Amino acid sequence: xxxxxxxxxxxxxxxxxxxxxxxxxxxxxxxxxxxxxxxxxxxxxxxxxxxxxxxxxxxxxxxxxxxxxxxxxxxxxxxxxxxxxxxxxxxxxxxxxxxxxxxxxxxxxxxxxxxxxxxxxxxxxxxxxxxxxxxxxxxxxxxxxxxxxxxxxxxxxxxxxxxxxxxxxxxxxxxxxxxxxxxxxxxxxxxxxxxxxxxxxxxxxxxxxxxxxxxxxxxxxxxxxxxxxxxxxxxxxxxxxxxxxxxxxxxxxxxxxxxxxxxxxxxxxxxxxxxxxxxxxxxxxxxxxxxxxxxxxxxxxxxxxxxxxxxxxxxxxxxxxxxxxxxx
Length: 328
What we know:
The protein is an alpha/beta fold.
């Protein structure tokens, strides 16, 4: 019996949809079949790079395909993030999203060439980490209280380095300045690595940095840690470092790094990457390596990571507005 034309169309459409779904599922099952690139929108040596390389090494093992870390630093992470936005939406180019690029930049740059939750699909968070105020051993202050006292005695004469304008390191220190009512000059660098090099050389005396990139220099005494930014103490080996909130009640800030993909990447691919990364982040050996860098693994579903980013964007929008922070 011949079907009416409308029913014929509906049958054909349903068949096409089922075929497309089956094709996407098969694609996800064979993913990846060639090398995968992860763009880190910052120079080598800072937290986003450190944890991405750790993850890439293990993903290479389980995927049996090379996972390549591609550093595209500078510009507050904007050029590298835009490169991720423009990548082919096939799952073979991923982007490291951070508290700076996805949390801060939307409120800091009115002409930002990407929209985190429009141009990208969040995959999963990787880590959450306290930031830490560190100083050259010759810096007179050893605590946040002493730092605040120095800054109030000589407003505007102290300075601090950060990974760049609008980064979590920069705004976390600006938040401290706001809450403590102090004036310290900001010296922006193009990434945490160059700033740390100048701190170690004594060219700058104070810096806000991630615990991951500052840990080795703290541990061997080349720099000293004044306080961490989270409300709770950092995990070992930095658990004895006080929090800023112990001196400035209510202060809290943290850095994070996660994975995102261009918006049109199929959900099946996103879900597979999420499952594989989540499994790695629950591996006791990986957890130990992350905690050894004073950070905490923080896997999430794509929906959970999306909600996390939305909340972070709201928090930093308030800080940017209150401090009047402008991009460099």
